[in-house]
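User: Hello, can you help with two protein structures?

Assistant: Certainly.
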Amino acid sequence: MTTTPPSTITPRTTATSLPLVGTAKPSAAADRGRVHAEQASKRVRALLGGQVVVDTIRPVLVWEGPHYPVYYVPRQDVLAALEPNGKTVRSPSRGDAVRHDVVIGDHRAPDAAGTYPDSPIAEFQDLVRIDWAAMDTWLEEDEIVYGHARNPYHRVDILSSSRHVTVEIDGVTVADSVRPVILFESGLRPRYYLPLTDVRTDLLLPSDSATHCPYKGTAGYYSVRVNGTVHQDVVWIYRTPLAESIRIAGLVCFYDEKVDLFVDGAHT
């Protein structure tokens, strides 16, 4: 591994090549050729096959798109071998990414890392991007992170409400509640979590599907059978959410875009 001292990225940098992230979501076209990066202070680790691939207290958060950041880490803090595989990927902002297989012990993650040795942004030249999905586990400090790196500007508010929420599928009322818990998440539509006692549980079919969220944890799913038709994975539940989202534990949420959801009589 290189012994070159790590480059630094000043927090909330205003350099032309690293513009500040605004409160509004930038469009893909507007952000083409631009990137925002910030020095983070959490300890970040990535594991593959039970072995530590990355262990750093100098991660850099890089917004490759408007929704959430990706961790880039100093090359010195990558404990696995990075074997070039002959591939390159062009980025209009970061330059050519030299692609690598990540190898540690008997474990190999093909095409799982990128480096930017000739990046036009000098701070990126000694950083490594390890693909999130290629690793078995990611940790921020000593806690597992699900799905992707947390966005420090992302907020989740969970509020009890007395709004009247009804859910219909194919004209059949499958939920009716005046005690929803509403989850407001930055940049997303509100989600209405309902007690199971206010839901037609006789219509629910357990599903093997699962999704992962760094703010809420792991969601399980139900499908709904109505009028002989199965509507796949239109309901989710966080049975054991992360501590910050504990108020939605055991409540169910309908996928608004796939059902007819009414709040105080108005269709959402």
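That covers the first. Now for the second protein you mentioned:
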Amino acid sequence: MLKIGNLELEGFPLVLSPMDDVTDRPFRGVCKRFGADLLITEFIASEALVREVEKSRRKMQFDEAERPIGIQIFGHDADALIRSLEFVEQAKPDFVDINWGCPMRKIAGRGAGSGALRDPDRLVETTAAIVKASHLPVTVKTRLGYDENSKPIVELAERLQDVGVAAISIHGRTKTQLYRGTADWTLIGKVKENPRMQIPVFGNGDITTPEMADEYRRRYGVDGILIGRAAIGNPWIFEQTHHVMDGQPQRTITVAERVEVCRSHLLAAVQWKDERTAILEMRKHYSGYFKGLFDFKPFRLKLVSLTNLDELLAVFDDIAEHYQNI
């Protein structure tokens, strides 16, 4: 039994990695349906929560069926991070996650996200203050280090554990790598091998197939794995990964099921957001939902160009009819 504070997780947990403008409430619900064990919201700016920005507060909302779930916050100002806990705790998630991993310039350039890795002492000090102020378990998502010359993650993970962090997720790249190159899981494995580490260690980065997740679980001994980009338009990856890990045969995902799940995802998004926003944001998911279908280009062009919900739903009907025997 894996424990994050007072939260207990059975088996080997697969986590939907938080992604900005992707892991919203509708998509989290779809991934939960197909086997994601642990969910985390999109990252939310602590300063925006303190200012009571409605869009940011709305990102904290979740359905009870999504539990266990964490709310992820980020920021460069320790006071704002601590003050934002009041709003996070009102939402009653199972834990709060600190994003010390985002490498994007607008975030990291201000010392938030993985920009904090430039000064590990300050990162640990800020995290300790958040842990002390929080009534919820606090977890951290971070990277190997700031750049190739500074990868202190083995020591840093231990220090974060010592100030009360309940679990740590590590992306196998540095800040300066962004998402280029290949994720290096070697140091993630060394964090887990550290005999002083008692908290759960989750690995993240470049998990693209169920088989890879299973291989990395065995090779690096992590307590759980985060799956991010590979889940976009492909929520079945969680179910399939559990089947691979349990030695079970894979079932065929029919086109009819792909259409049904994609349609329900879109309708949930429209209900959660305004119609235009939902339609535009769904476009990033279509390639995944219908990957590998022959002669799909005419349908894809319609899916990424239409802006009317009824017309899009008619396209789904056409797809289902065209590929009805697959």
